[in-house]
Amino acid sequence: MYKLFLLVGCLIVTGRATAFKADYLVLSWTAQSGLVAEYHAVVDLPIDFKNKASAVPSDNVQLLASDGILIDEVSLKNQLITRAEYHGHEQLDGQLLLNEEIVFVVRAPRGMVKQLSLPISVDKNQTRFDFSNLVRNARYKAVLPTQPAAGNPDNRVNLLVMGDGYTANQENDFNADVDSIIAYMQTFEPYQSYSEFISFDRQFTASNQPGADKPAACFGNDAVTVDTAFDASYCIASIRRLLTVNSSKIYTAAAASPDWNEIIVIVNDTEYGGSGGSFSTFSTHASANDIFIHEYGHSFTDLADEYDSAYPGFPACSDINGPSCEANVTDETNRNNIKWSHLIEPSTPVPTPETSQYNTVIGLFEGARYQELGRYRPKNFCNMRSLSYDFCAVCQAAYVFKLYQVPYAQGSPLSLLEPGTASPADTTPTTMVAVPMTFSVDTLQPSHHLDVSWWVNGVQQTSNSDGQISQSFVFQPNQVGQQNIKIKVQDHSPMVHSSRQAELPEFEFQWQLNVVPFNDLIFADDFEQLP
Ligand SMILES: [Zn+2]
After folding, report:
1. Distance between Cα 492 and ligand 1 center (Å)
2. Structure pTM?
């Protein structure tokens, strides 16, 4: 079973998550120095950790209570490698570099975490570190003023845009560059249709000098060294276009917006360059933001690269023997067992020839995930293979499932029903016979309509696909008493094949309505005492 499709069931909206005092800890690990706490701050976060279980060895950072109960896990898959990927001719020019220093952030409710262990791939013994010692020994500490964010920040993917190489008087340039990357992202599907699901936050940090370092190893006589807030530099590992910033400094500064889910960094330099990994970094060169569109496919949607330039040593995957491949790559060649078989027309051969006849269809194209043979991609050209293309239907559907896959960093589920917007707000309201009563809940709105149904006492009253989220009911004298009113909402996304839409989660909200006879409410309101 394809893992993204396991999220089935009904999620009930309970209300707005409240903010908790949380530890925000930036940690680094190298083979030489081991685990080092770089920075600690106390922040306000809408954290809501519910799922607790005994810890079993895993390839994540584990946060544990003193009794060995697992509180949360932090994946480091994006922290282990730096992705040097650029516009190539037919495919991406891709190169992956193993990071010698792994930098990551842990966010947890204060006092709850007692121990921390590293992923098996980093520490095969999963040694447990005392969490309060890490906090106590952090090299830098801060207690930040807390700023309650607008809206329902806990019900969005929080994408934090930061900048490097902008001087104090270039804040307007930074804001214009942020506006342009947001606008650019929204020209790409699936990001465009689900733009309301993303909260774009921005944080300006002034640098002493503009631009980025250009070491002589790549730039010769044009080499420059500049003093910037986050040490932006091209020519990492002697690759001219590989542009990175200091991860530890970025994560430390990001503590001022601690509820981020993804971070992107714009470097104020027109030289083409960028990188992916812990976060996406790219320059202000006109084509560099294409790198971000692709890297977000890795970091948020967990998509694999579909190009075939060799990267020896990259962990293998197999949908037949495990561990499973990412949503957009497979080694399965039996048509019926291919995880995107529902998207392959009977007339499309499997494997599918790389000829122009099949450029627009989903099939099984050989060559993906750094292998020319034995690994297959769904479409001949997709953004995960070449920056000049859109995302294919398989990648788009994976994004939609990922949006609804919970929890995010703060442990709060993203809900189609906006927390705190139910009307009436009182979930046990009273109404009179024969008087219309209107119920509504605001929804998180993709560009298409949501499927909405209204129920009274478990009996469906309405079903519509026009996203109607407000409904009036009138009750008869024989309905005096308790009435259960329920709204159910589901996203039958056009980006998900009809055979899989039912696997998207359904969200509901309900009221226990007390229907009283006409006269009762008048007397209850002291009507007879009015002058
Ligand atoms: Zn890639």
Report:
1. 29
2. 0.86
